[in-house]
Here is the input.
Amino acid sequence: MSTTINEAFDNDVYLFSTNDNVHNHNRKKIYSLKQPIARSIGTKLGPVNATERSSHDKLDMEFLISKNARVMLTSNLWIEASLLNGALGYIKNIVYKPRSMPPEPPTYVMVKFDNYSGFPFDDHNPQIVPISVRQRGSTIQIPLRLAWALTIHKSQGLTLGKATTDIGPTERKGMTFVVVSHVKSLQGLRIMPPFTYDRYEKMKDEESRLKDLEINPCNNFS
Here is the structure.
């Protein structure tokens, strides 16, 4: 049976311009698994400082976890083996200490990463890695977040085979070109909903502005 265009993109990352859309899409997807869902609430050791608030390599205070959930690593654990901030995978198992239970964070989560290249923790499943609780700044938590959907901002640095994006109602400083840079080819990008011709004209204006900055970088400070 042939696969429709929509079906071909259904299991790939969805990029949104707002956190609310990301939150809603991830909730919808994790509920659709029809698996038990637990909340993992981290421990806060003290006030959050300015460095933590602005850091891309930080831990979420709370997130939902379930077997088969699509997740993204949010800390650099072993860069040479592709266990780095932004690595994508699926949860295969969740392990708690005896007599502990949600919303306490699990002891570790077994994640099958897409591109893990280190030594195997399990010879039968070489891409599965145990991810344990760790401290980052003032937060103790599992360094994962749901990743069926990400904000365009949080997806910076990722290269995806396929992605769907909602680029929002207005063009903001090259957002569309940032999205295009995340996929390996234009055939791997689906834009939903489609944009209008007026939006296309604004995208062309933004492209001209970016090209002008490449040629005359001092214009950025004028």
